[in-house]
Design a protein that fits this description.
Elements lengths: L1 E5 L10 H10 L4 E5 L14 E4 L4 H11 L3 H9 L4 E4 L9 E2 L2 E2 L6 E5 L5 E9 L2 E12 L1 E5 L7 E5 L9 E2 L1 E3 L2 E4 L5 H4 L1 H10 L9 H16 L7
Parallel strand pairs: 1-2, 1-3, 3-4, 4-14, 5-7
Antiparallel strand pairs: 5-6, 7-10, 8-9, 8-11, 11-12, 13-14
């Protein structure tokens, strides 16, 4: 098994090192490629079994767009061939048409609008659209609101907290095996049932380390988020 961690030196913000550590624990047999910004991604040279990109800065977003633009066709091919791709925090925005006036890769018909003087911080409680019995708890911390401009592939339906923007209750993108969300946590560590669902979806079912402890924390947090006394912001 081959796993590529894209740009771990820049895209490790908001707890995302936890997801990288989790992937190592889940797949100890895998060959990991940790690709820095200045290096050609491994997915352009050989087939990856999973590609991961975590949250980064606004500056790193522009750098990633510039580095990946000549490689866009390889990325589209990986997506269409159902390669599992995990995008957390603001990393999915590089695939959008635009981030404000910055031209993105244009793989998905969304735009991100920044409000740099007003960071959005809140709790998030939602449910998976493909399985509405599966509830998700997480956090949100971002400068952008997201708007669909064409075909839409929502991942979550919001119960409490902000969706993609102040007017929509949808959140994230699920297209084939590409899983993208602005939520942070790390999301899979906070939501072991969601992790279990995704592993089954991509045909990589396995025992999740510390599953019982993760579930205990998940149930406590869900109860807290359902309490109206718990502040959203």
């Amino acid at each position: 098994m081959k796993i590529e961690l894209l740009y771990p030196e820049t895209n490790n913000h908001l707890g995302e090192k936890g997801h990288m550590d989790l992937l190592h624990l889940l797949f100890p047999e895998a060959l990991f490629f940790e690709t820095p910004l200045v290096q050609t991604p491994a997915f352009t040279k050989e087939k990856m079994d999973l590609i991961y990109l975590g949250a980064g800065t606004e500056k790193s977003q522009e750098q990633i767009i510039n580095y990946l633009r000549p490689k866009k066709d390889y990325l589209v091919e990986a997506i269409e061939n159902e390669t599992p791709i995990l995008l957390f925090g603001n990393s999915s925005e590089v695939l959008f048409n635009r981030i404000d006036d910055i031209e993105g890769l244009g793989i998905f018909d969304y735009t991100a609008k920044r409000q740099m003087l007003k960071r959005i911080n809140s709790i998030y409680h939602g449910r998976l659209i493909e399985d509405k019995d599966l509830e998700v708890v997480a956090f949100r911390s971002q400068f952008t609101q997201i708007y669909s401009e064409g075909e839409d592939y929502p991942l979550f339906e919001t119960i409490r907290g902000l969706g993609r923007n102040s007017e929509e209750n949808k959140e994230g993108i699920l297209y084939k095996n590409l899983f993208a969300t602005h939520l942070i946590g790390p999301v899979f560590i906070m939501n072991p049932l969601l992790l279990q669902w995704y592993l089954e979806r991509i045909g990589r079912q396995r025992e999740i380390p510390n599953f019982d402890t993760m579930m205990e924390a998940y149930e406590l947090r869900k109860k807290e988020y359902l309490d109206p006394k718990t502040m959203e912001v």
